[in-house]
Write a structure and sequence with these properties.
homohexamer, alpha/beta, 4-stranded antiparallel beta sheet, elongated
């Protein structure tokens, strides 16, 4: 993540909470300083301690010193410090909620992703996200997926091709849709087609699709789809993936498993900020 | 929600997905029109169909007509339409993800809130949210809480007073903290103090707090806290509230129950967008 | 005021004057440095020397050193220095007008507020502002009121309740308006009702209003209003308040006196910037 | 004023008051409509009824119909309607303060300007403003000066040349300062030099200044300055201008009188918004 | 191009010219209307008449009617109308320069692109652009390339992979650079490697590159590069491409020819706006 | 150029290329540092090495040290270094394209301007630009003109008066157009009138125009126009100016020659960024 881009977002999030100041803290505090430590209240995979949480406090101003910043991707046990911060008490109190709201969500995504990745360990399948991200947080959430050991699917509608049912329906045929897209889009992008049936998989292969999404197929069908595809295209399973079935799905030999839940349903982890002095 | 404010946010969310266009749709579609219907794939409490989802498509341009918009707060059964939209196929395809990402999350919050509210039915206790919202989405998420029958706590650090442990620690005494705040903040705001013990409750009452947060207390202590407070202040229970214990907590007679989970842990509901023609 | 929020405003004000550069200064100056001092040309209460005036020069760039910054709220006699600045001559010349336009206005508000506060000295009445602020400058102007020893009323329509005539008229009854508001707004906000007559004061009290605004009442009526209210609500006098009548009004025992003139009619004070070397 | 530019400013001012909604109005009102009329509570020169006040309500949404809009520059007697608006009650209540805060200030400037202009009637002198405007409101305030019959001085540091004492001091000589500026700035801009003495006037004339500001001179000196200048340059009087002395100053034959007070000290006029039905 | 995204850019460009109004037009014009026609003063390929030029006038306000809008991609002879506009004279005069500055540049790019495309007619080679676009205009300029019959290379550093010399040098080996990238980037993106020598081409093929850029090679080397690559990767020629040599280069059988000059050196075409009445 | 204003633009240009990061560089690089040098690949006049190119890298973050920065306006021979930069390799790679896209264009303008200026050496004619600049880049491009030894015409429609054919046509007469403008616009601006014939020149002189643009006249007519004008106004030649005819035009004695090609048709110069270590 570019700090230039990230800072703009963090300032926007801080303004949401602090546009009219912090009436409580401003009434009570002068120039006192304080020391806080953030503690993982459950096991988690770290994401954003330095680039996000620490940066939030820096943007509020006043010299803040950080310590014990858990590195991105590190597995952290419950009870462990994920960062400490020493600086103006007012800055620490004002930035707390925005910093925690962000990293609890990001660590949640990293942690869930890491669990999916762990389940397919030893296999050659890649766990990837989708565009089912929180509006306004896509860059951060896709970063969290990478911190958890996953990979990213396309970032937006502008940088990846995915031909869906509705595109095909409106166009008349899968082959024609692929043809139109190939004619128009950058040669730097692979063309992906969503297939619900093996018949469609065959059509997509014939049309020269580069990636074939096997959507919501049962294991047996999926296995056949993967076989059909072979090395002619990249195979991607999608729909209905859970921690319970992800390994079985990966064992079909599918190249990619894309999971919306990584971002739309990862529970936030619990991180507390304790006042040390 | 003011449309002036909301539109700015929706444009920002659309830009995240569409800044570089939609390479797939732009390659395939001309001026075809289409009709889609959004279906609740699970029971839910509606939020944002008109102000958010429909508005997303409008902002993309092209005349879009909407139908069967589920009203905010309505309980919707699985399988029911929550809105239909007829307009340029390209607009429908481009806006789908942003619209769904938003309303699935908002309906999720409304649905969870409604369930909490249902559990305390018949009692005089109000279910409220916290500032544990998604950065950038606070206005929308607090609106969803209201659609679910809940109420809002303060919007930001600038429009509500909450004196916490750390404030008290830094200040030396609870009474002094309350005194400083009363001297400084607007008379239009009530002063709330977070208390962990009954001793603190007594101190807060003596200091003239207007709202007393009974934080993470067990039921017995909570009950005593509520008794101590009587009508001298508004009582608010917070911390560790679940669907299972919310009624017991409400039965202590506490005025307010504030629940971070309403916004930070409400699972997104499943809404699908089907292409009709 | 959060520096994060303030800087955005100051940059915006600087751009208004400097978007196309300073054709005079750019044509004449190279890297010369200079020393200026800002002088109070009349007695005033200081506001914004460090956070606003000095910050304006800093944002223009080049290392600028400040001295003798009059602290916020200090009473300054005519002829006294309120700050000195040493730095690039071009920066000093370019920032002068924006810095002075701001602090002359802010000190004007602080000075007028301080005079109102002085008039009610020894009494238990608080002088507060209104929303009659300059569009775009509300945060700064409300800060100036605090520097003058006053307090703030609500910041915006979103963080304070004030039920006015028109609300009551449209709603049918005062009691019903209060009821609807109490049901909907955050428990952290007090409910204020504007009353023009003692009859309305009684209704408001019966409806459980937390703050009762006694609007444009003559002294005798006001006194009765304050009596009626007693300790059942906070009393607030508003409308037609001047330096001449403010003490008499305060002597009725009213808790709060709100004065639009603090911000909409405070004359700017005269501060000059002299070139020392 | 370009509506494109103005709308951006008005949206910004509305957001200041309505970013978090209007908790009072939203709690009480549904889809009721209403009719309001704005009344001049004192004689005034109108400014901004259509472009500013009406536009504020339009931006809030809902169809609003306006009537009896006082044209810019019209002299309005006390008690006369300056506009009526019929539309959603919520829109009328929410936009009232922003609309009035703006037009009360703008009409105040137009009214004061018109009075200065009236005092020099029949003479060939032009009344102009300065850059002593409210930060963020320069475009609107300079428009108000024109509505009052005045003219504008330069808009910003980038579109007019004014060589001041400090420029001359830093540069060594007036002639050299003029020379450097003439070499660098656009030929479309006249070069103005601020002169405190007749000696400086002679120097400025010799250097070929296009406009000579006669700064803070007594009447006798001013008269001599104007004579010295003749038709060789445009003469501009500045500093210490009041309604009382403006005619005497104009009678010296000076071409331009620039008055900071037009914008920094014009008292806001009183305009009330009455609810009709 | 999404109108939502484009409008933001056009407003920004209009503000650059009109932030302080149009002093000439505002002084002369009232509510007169006019009719203008834009004429191609040289043969050109049209781009942006409807989406850009007409939209510029619309954003300025006032009802404007357009006619004879040349469709994107149409070849227009010298002397032909490319659009007519009837509306407020002030709007037409104010928007003229911004509209022409944009479409003259865009048509210039489309025209140059079309000429390159014409030179390779009948061959299977695609003409594409680069990131050598005007800062702030990339979306528009890449659209113009498509209007000219060309295709786009990656839009930004975030949506396409191009491993250059410097990446390889810093990394130690081409194979290692490809490996690292493949491990990290989305499977939806092809991996492109810039090669200066045939040796590097072999390495890139061995490493599994998807696209091989043959950079600044003479024709003979290029031909060998294309042969080496065969169907194992997409071949792309780059560097030193001119209208004179483009066909010879295409005849090597290379798949893609990327040309920075399409955007950084296309001369603006001449389009005049004539006042009809 | 004010750094405050410039930084906003540079951030915007960087976001265009880096909003979604740099997938190639982020995949390959860690914290390596590097040293690059930018080389003029053709003779050029330098513009923007320090304020623009170096600043681009600074905004991306990481400490970057610059050396051998060619001063603005310096004539640089082919093969000479125009700047070196040492810093994080990732920063250098990410900023390269934006920095080069900008300075290649700016140096192109400065170089072409310098050539026009050289052609009129020894004469008293000033070479100036027009508003035919790249949308969004006007401030930078007008700065480049000054670096090349030229001067600027008005910056925007708001800070200079130019009465054109269409204004005159709509107004009925040239004299009336001048009269209306003189009555309305700031006395700080000279009034310029575009004349196509000597008849119009006489009219413009009679109307008291301050600057007379002699538009698209042949040399003989131009010469007579200049004579007619004498010292009564500033004379400006415009239209059809080339490097070949500029000296002959200047030799007519015209004061100003304005040339749109300086900004709309200056070819970008070639500057390469070489990786040193």
């Amino acid at each position: 993540m570019e700090s230039l881009i990230l800072d703009t977002q963090l300032r926007h999030f801080l303004a949401e909470d602090l546009e009219h100041g912090d009436v409580t803290t401003d009434a009570i505090f002068g120039r006192e300083t304080g020391l806080v430590q953030a503690i993982a209240r459950q096991p988690l995979v770290a994401c954003g301690m330095e680039q996000v949480a620490a940066r939030v406090f820096c943007l509020l101003g006043g010299p803040v010193e950080f310590g014990e910043l858990a590195p991105d991707g590190a597995r952290i046990e419950a009870g462990r410090v994920v960062f400490t911060a020493r600086g103006p008490a007012a800055t620490l109190l004002k930035g707390e909620r925005v910093a925690l709201n962000l990293v609890q969500r990001l660590c949640g995504i990293a942690t869930l992703t890491a669990e999916f990745v762990r389940r397919v360990e030893g296999l050659d399948t890649r766990i990837v996200d989708t565009r089912k991200t929180t509006p306004g947080l896509r860059m951060l959430e896709k970063y969290a997926v990478r911190c958890g050991g996953g990979s990213n699917h396309r970032f937006s509608l502008g940088d990846g091709v995915l031909i869906k049912d509705n595109h095909i329906a409106a166009c008349g045929s899968l082959a024609e849709a692929v043809r139109r897209v190939r004619e128009r889009v950058a040669h730097t992008l692979r063309i992906e087609v969503e297939c619900d049936t093996l018949e469609q998989v065959r059509e997509a292969l014939a049309a020269g699709a580069d990636i074939i999404m096997l959507d919501n197929m049962d294991l047996a069908t999926l296995r056949k789809g993967v076989e059909l595809i072979g090395t002619a295209a990249i195979s991607e399973a999608s729909g209905g993936i859970t921690l319970d079935n992800v390994r079985a799905i990966a064992e079909t030999g599918v190249d990619i498993i894309s999971i919306g839940a990584l971002t739309h349903s990862a529970p936030a982890v619990d991180i507390g900020l304790d006042w040390i002095s």
